[in-house]
Structures are given as C-alpha cells and as structure tokens.
Amino acid sequence: MHRQAFMNSYDSVPYPTFAQPQTHPRRLETIAWLLSLPAPSSQNCRVLELGCGDGSNLIPMAVAAPECQFVGIDASSVQIEMGRQWVNDLRLTNIQLEHRAIEQLDASWGSFDYIVCHGVFSWVPQRVQLAILRLVRELLTAEGIAYISYNTQPGWHGRGAIRNMMGYHVGRFSSDDPRERIGRARGLLDFLTRATAGNQDSYGLLLRENLAQLSQLPDAYLFHEHLEEINEPIWFLDFCEMLSGMELRYVGEADFSAMIEPAGLSDEIRHELQELAPRLLEKEQYLDFLRNRSFRQTLICRAGRQPNYAVGSERIHDLFVGSQMIPNASSVDYSSDVVQVFELGTETTLSTQLPIFKAALVALRQAWPNLLPFEILLQQAHQLLEQANLMRERLDCKTELAKALLTTYSSTSLPVVELSRQPVRLTGEPSDAPMASPLVRLQSNRSQIVSNLRHESVRLTQAERFLVAHLDGKRSRDELLEIFSEQFPEAFESSDVACAQSIDSVDRSMEAITNRGRPQILQEHLVRFARYALLIG
Q: What is the structure's pLDDT at 272?
C-alpha cells in the first residue's frame, strides 16, 4: 500500500487509505521497550506522517489521543482537502494536514517523537528517499522512533514481473487517461489468467497466484502499485547503508514476529546461517532470502543508540497485556495434563497445557477491549487457579506466564496476544444511551469500513452502519428499538462484524432471534460494538 508524492496521479486517482495499526506510536513505543530502547511516551507525543494521503491513518489517532499532536503532509492537494474536511467535521484541534512535497519540509516544522512514512519509500525517486531520511535525521527527537515501509527483494520479484508486463502492454497505447490505462491493464490480466489456466509449471502457478490477488484489489491499488513510473523494491542491506549514510540505524520491525527466525530450521541450517551472516543486519538479509520477503515495515532511530536483541521475558513485567482469544469449550480445564484450545475467529487457534497461561487468557478475554497490567493479570490468573485448587508457587507462575506471553507474541503477526507499554482503556459495556465514536458515526454514513478506537479497521454490514450512525449518546434503547422497527426492521436479524479479530459465536437463526426478542438482539449488537472498540459510552 502506498501514496506516492506525485500530485497529478494521486489527484486524478485518489488512493484509498485506512488506519494502519502497525504505524501507531503505541506499537512503536512497545517494540522499542522490548528491545530496551527508551522511547517517548505515546500518550503525550508529537507525530509526523510523510505521505499521509487523506489522513485516514492519522485522523483516527488524533480522535483517540486528544493530548497528542499530529502533522500530516502529502503532495496531493485533492487528498489533503478531503482530509481537512474530515478534520473540520470532527472539530479536531490537534491535527494539521498540509499540502506539501516531502522535499519542502525543513527544521522549521519542529521536532517529532514519532515519524511515519507508510507506502512511500519504494514509489519515489532516490532524491526523495534521501529527503525522507534527511527529515528523519533532522526532525526526530533524541529518543524518537521512525517507521518506514518499503518493498523488498527477493519477494517482490514475481510481482515485479507482472508489473513490467502491464507497463509494457499499457505503454503501447498513447492514452494517458488513468481509467483507460487501468482498463487495458485489467484486460491483460484477464487474458493471462485464461491463457495460462492449464499451465501447471512453476511459472504458471506463480503467475496465477499473483493474478488472483490482483483481481481482488481495487483499481486505485492496481494503478499506483503497477502503472506508476516508479516502484522499486530494495535489498534490506542497501536500505541499511542508506540509513548509515544519514546517521541513522536499524531498530527492528513493526511486526515483532518478523524479527524471529522461521520455525523449523534444523541445527545444521542455523549453524550455516550463522557462518554466512555472523552480524545482525547480514542475518536479516539472509532471512529475507529464506522467507522470500516482499515488504518490510522497519523502525529506525538515531545512530549511536543500541537496542538489545536478547529480549528477556522480564521485559513483559512492565507492560499491559490484551487478548480476545475464546476458549473452545464452555468450561476451561486448568490442569496441566489437559490441552486447552482457544480460538480467534474460525481459522486461528492457540493450544496450551500451561495452567497459568490458560487462566491468563480467560482473564484477558473478560477484560477485553481493555488491557491489563501484567501484575494485575497475574493476580487474576492466580485467583482462577485457586478457585480450581491448582495454585502453584507464585514466582514460578510469574516466570512461566511472562515467557508464554513473549513466546506467543513473538511467534505470529496475528493479534493473538497484544503487548503495550501504555494502557488501553475503552468502554467495555454499553450504557443505557450508548454513544459510538464521532469518527465511527461519520465514517459509517460514507463507507462500510470504519476505524475503531484501537486504530483498527472494522467492516460493518448495512444494518450495523445504520445502527452505529444513531448511537449519539442521546437516544435510549427504547428509542433505538422504535427507530429500527419503523426504518430498518431487519437490522437486528444479522450480526456479521468482520474485522481483524474474532467474532463471538452467535446463533443467528430466525428462531433464535425470535426467542431472544429484539431488546436482547440490540444488546448483543451493542456488546459486540463495545468489544470492537467502537463505543465511547
């Protein structure tokens, strides 16, 4: 995903943008903490986004963190004006969106604790890449953290081949009209898909896999990803050399699990890897070879600072923890000889025999969408074990729980376990006159996708959009029921919130709906909205 800093193409074909959780200062601060690198508090910070588009990533941050200050710049005047309209509608005073080229910024803009540049670096000329790194060097505070995403080799090679084909094909025609160019590119994709349908060799399989992905993506993505003049992937070590030339250094990845060696490597392979790449940055490059990595979301800081990559579980003790994993059974067996399965949606599962970890996951689910301080989580898990007559030595439990949390967090990019340096306090239960976030209400009138207070994208059905738009804190539940009885009677007959996290199992049959009654259906919707951090009261 990206928003290149070229005005004409992004003015004529605006790029759809959404909240990007991996760019949030809270995430960046937490990863820095795990690596023993002090970072500014994300509860009171100044944030700059280079290439902010219409502000869809920055505006939700500003809504959820009024004590922070946000500045976004983009070379597309159309997208900046779109973002400013959102800012005006929401009456935000802690965010500034400016129509500027990246090269126009200088030290007069002040310093920033966090700098975000998502989906820009690979899509601009090298002079602009150097300008981005120069700004990070000049504007980042002493302990600040910057985030830059970019396409990488070798994984982007296959996509690059398709990009080159589309560029060659479209370039044979003289029209510069974006819609016509997109149409010709789609036509080529359709031709290649049909022509290689029976091709079972490695090229045919690779081609069809990439074609299938592109067929599901919007025209704006196709245009800016594959038809722009510039989209150059970079080798990781070359990126690090650019950092070094700007007195900056690599910290890690916004996806912490991406920093861990792939599972399943034999001792022999690990030994050979160590010989091939004895230093950290070299090893990261060779891991890109093993993973066929096509995209990085890299955190950087000033040169001279030294992260500690030997992350100990004791780092968890000062963090807040969250999880919405659900036990797959009505009751949990906490004994150590029983494997308990927890689920996140229909495809993600976590199995454990560790009693303290089972109890912690149950406690975290009860607290969600709020996070618990580790020590409080430990106490609540102890209480559950005591009730089950399975209490062990507290020191052992503390060590085991911290290790289990760190291992789980490190093993997957999925939101199975969340760690945070700062608290996340949200509405867990809907009030008698529930209120949705002002941003969610505004977005629900214009789009299926809204940004919740956890900086995640949530897709709503038509019925849910209608319901959320009326949660203004002024209507009682009886009034809400009356509105829907007249305007949208089927609103309580479906509950399909689709977002990055799991959906509670709910019997949605007509018989069950009739038996529960409309007030109960409304309550289920509201509880679900609270679980997905859409409510503020």
A: 93
Q: Measure the CA–CA gap between 25 and 50, rounded to whole angstroms.
A: 15
What is the rounded distance in angstroms from the CA atom of residue 96 to the CA atom of residue 18? 18
Domain residue spans in the chain? 7-154+233-302, 157-222, 313-420, 438-531
The Cα 3–Cα 6 span in angstroms is 8
pLDDT at 263: 81
Looking up tokens 């109890």 gives 359
Please give the full DSSP string across 125-184, using - where no structure is assigned: -HHHHHHHHHHHHHHEEEEEEEEEEEEBTTTTHHHHHHHHHHHHHHHTS----HHHHHHH
pTM: 0.89
Enclosing H/E stretch for 270 = helix 267-276
Mean local confidence (pLDDT), 128-142: 97
Show the tokens assigned to 472. Answer: 């203004």
How many CA within 13 A on the CB side of residue 396? 5
Mean pLDDT over residues 77-82, rounded? Answer: 93
- Residues 442, 465 contacting (CB under 8 angstroms): no
Alpha carbons 449 and 456: distance in angstroms, whole number: 10
**Residue 501's pLDDT band (cuts 50, 70, 90):** very low
pLDDT digits (tens, 9 = 90+) for 193-216: 888 888 888 777 877 777 777 777
Q: Give the separation between CA 214 and CA 226, rounded to whole angstroms.
A: 10
Q: What is the CATH number of domain 7-154+233-302?
A: 3.40.50.150
